[in-house]
Fold this sequence. Notes:
This protein is mainly α and about 325 residues long. It contains eight helices and three strands. The protein has helices at about 5-30, 30-60, 75-100, 110-135, 140-170, 175-200, 205-220, 255-270, and strands at about 225-235, 240-250, 275-285. Helix 4 runs antiparallel to helix 5. The protein is elongated and about 90 Å long.
Amino acid sequence: MxxxxxxxxxxxxxxxxxxxxxxxxYFATHSNAILTDAAExxxxxLASAFAFYSxxxxxxxxxxxxxxxxxxxxxxxxxxxxxxxxxxxxxIVAKSVYNIFYPQxxxxxxxxxxxxxxxxxxxxxxxxxxxxxxxxxxSITLSAEGKHLITDAISTFGLMLxxxxxxxxxxxxxxxxxxxxxxxxxxxxxxRLVRKSVSGLMDxxxxxxxxxxxxxxxxxxxxxxxxxHNLRAQRYGAETHIDCHVTLPYYLDLNQVHDExxxxxxxxxxxxxxxxxxFIHADPCIPQCCHYCSVKNCTVRSQPQTEIIAWxxxxxxxxxxxxxx
Length: 325
């Protein structure tokens, strides 16, 4: 079993245990706010189970039907988790509004605060750990699960504060009002997760990856690399797919073109990550390129070099050579 699968499996087991503790706290107190927290834990369990399967599927090697691998399923996993979070928030708000008009008597409030406090600490620590591992493994599923648990921990601590206020003031309607506020916070968190996952599913530009590629191309730039344009990059799970057009001197033979392209591939691959696929289309130079071409002692130059064009996130992603306006 891979490291990511072990991590998410541990998260699933812990989520089940914490859900059980929260329901114990609810039955002890009959607090609608605690029930809100417990209901969200059901979402945590479902999301962790789906995340475990998606990470297993994402780890499968490329095959005939999936030449780019299975990493994109992690975006779908995050999308489902986000929808579940939004649904839980809506149900929480609806139940809390109902209980404003039909309140329940609360019992053993401090005992409930202690129990959910323990779950909040565990969720917070686990969430930070998952976010850290998500960045290390470049896994949107681990990061999404971690951020979800951190959100759960924050809402739990807010809930604890509200219950303490209720205990000392006796204003029991605060139980439902706190629950409504937490419900809207949960809905917003779910929306952000859905938005991020949809961006991945729709192949929205990953500006972080493109920015790094541009940085490495500029730092290792060679004179023969006259122009780079139409650069695109996407991350699918732990794999990064990059493609671009590179303008090279037209008189290079096929072996020389291959060497230049391979050097670009190696340079970027070493810096971006181990699992990087670089698809480069080679363009021959034309006379209009001469004014920004840095090739020394070029025997076919039609005009002198008058400028050096710095590659930036803006100009390197356009589908046109840099002399085109």
